[in-house]
Amino acid sequence: MSTAGTADTATEIDVSALAAEQALDLLEGEGMDTDVAGLRLFVQQGGCAGLSYGMRFDGEPEEDDQIYEHHDLRIFVDPASMNYIGGSVLDFEGGLQGAGFHVENPNVVSECGCGESFRT
């Protein structure tokens, strides 16, 4: 649910229960207050397809962030990144290639072979 600005459900960022659980464990492990701190999801230039995802923990949101909360995890997204990742789902996957967070983005028209970068 968005708590800052107005976002319709088509552009909302969703989070799977497993991704939220993993991120909250990491946040708590860093000693961060999960009532205020959150996971920043952003897009940056780079990768073989042109854009790549970035994630980091932030102690609090920036003034112009969209803030989403799912399964007690707060997600912060800046307006520029929102243009590329609106409607995405953050998930956590494990497997032979290693465990990690994965963004399921409906805006992607192509991805690189390793899945680390994309184009909209």
| Rg, alpha carbons | 14 Å
Which secondary-structure class do the elements indicate?
alpha+beta
Largest β sheet strand count, sense and barrel closure: 6 strands, mixed
The strand count comes to: 9
Please tally the helical runs, counting DSSP H or I stretches of 4 or more residues: 2
Question: What is the topology, as strand order, of the major beta sheet?
Answer: 4-5-2-3-9-8
Low-confidence stretches: 1-9
The number of distinct structural domains comes to 1
Oligomeric state of the chains present here: single chain
The level-1 CATH class: Mainly Beta
Name the beta content range.
35-45%
Q: How much helicity do the residues have?
A: 10-25%
In CATH, the homologous superfamily goes by the name HesB-like domain
CATH names the topology as Hypothetical Protein Aq_1857, Chain: A
Pfam family, one: Fe-S_biosyn
GO molecular function, one term: 2 iron, 2 sulfur cluster binding
Domain Core: 12-116
InterPro entries: ATAP (IPR016092), ATAP_core_dom (IPR000361), FeS_cluster_insertion_CS (IPR017870), HesB-like_dom_sf (IPR035903)
